[in-house]
């Protein structure tokens, strides 16, 4: 087993400091946008990629809130379109009449979020908003309406700060770009 947890990282795309600054900004914006709402705010993280971002973000939202998680099936490495996304783990909370903020690490094709928004939307929340740390617009195949975006990034394979390659690298404090040799 390779003990170097940063093995194969070519460079840092977004540093720890840049992440911190952006997360603070997003938290301030969300606080501002929801401060006059009377309904409970439920922050819904998509497992597993969102957990690091979500853990930091909720501490920058200065409002009462609850957290919950949902897990959608990953469709592996295939690049075929019209991929089917299934729910592996559902929310524990009911969201009827509440404000829901879905938190994601990255939007790529958009299939995962589209499905999750469809499912949650059918449960009559007061409002569903979406916050993603990273957005890769070049890869989008289905349209998703996002209210809060941390960074738009180029079409490179990024890992760290929750994002994985084969389940590795989620614990990096920065978002990095992996060397192509890692994928071979
Ligand atoms: C990744 C990422 C997003 C999704 C984005 O999750 O965390 O959830 O893919 O891709 P899309 O926009 O093309 O649907 P993954 O399925 O790898 O699961 P993970 O979060 O557990 O790593
Ligand atoms: Mn994910
Ligand atoms: Mg993944």
TrEMBL record:
GO molecular function, one term: hypoxanthine phosphoribosyltransferase activity
Domain of life of the organism encoding this protein: Bacteria
Major enzyme class: transferase
Boundaries of every Phosphoribosyltransferase domain copy: 17-165
InterPro entries hit by this protein: HGPRT, Hxn_phspho_trans, PRTase-like, PRTase_dom
Cofactor(s) the record lists: Mg(2+)
Annotated CDD domains: PRTases_typeI (cd06223)
Any Gene Ontology CC annotation: cytosol
Protein name: Hypoxanthine phosphoribosyltransferase
Organism (species): Leptotrichia shahii
């Amino acid at each position: 087993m390779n003990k170097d947890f940063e093995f194969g990282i070519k460079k840092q795309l977004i540093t720890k400091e840049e992440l911190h600054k952006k997360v603070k900004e997003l938290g301030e914006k969300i606080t501002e946008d929801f401060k006059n709402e009377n309904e409970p705010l439920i922050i819904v993280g998509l497992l597993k990629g969102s957990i690091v971002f979500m853990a930091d973000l909720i501490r920058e939202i200065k409002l009462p809130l609850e957290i919950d998680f949902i897990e959608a099936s990953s469709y592996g490495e295939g690049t075929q379109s019209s991929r089917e996304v299934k729910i592996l783990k559902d929310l524990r909370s009911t969201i009827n009449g509440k404000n829901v903020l879905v938190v994601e690490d990255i939007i790529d094709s958009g299939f995962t979020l589209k499905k999750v928004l469809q499912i949650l939307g059918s449960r009559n929340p007061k409002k569903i908003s979406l916050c993603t740390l990273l957005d890769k617009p070049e890869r989008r195949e289905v349209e998703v309406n996002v209210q809060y975006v941390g960074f738009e990034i180029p079409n490179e394979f990024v890992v760290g700060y929750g994002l994985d390659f084969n389940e590795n690298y989620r614990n990096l404090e920065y978002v990095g770009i992996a060397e192509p040799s890692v994928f071979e």
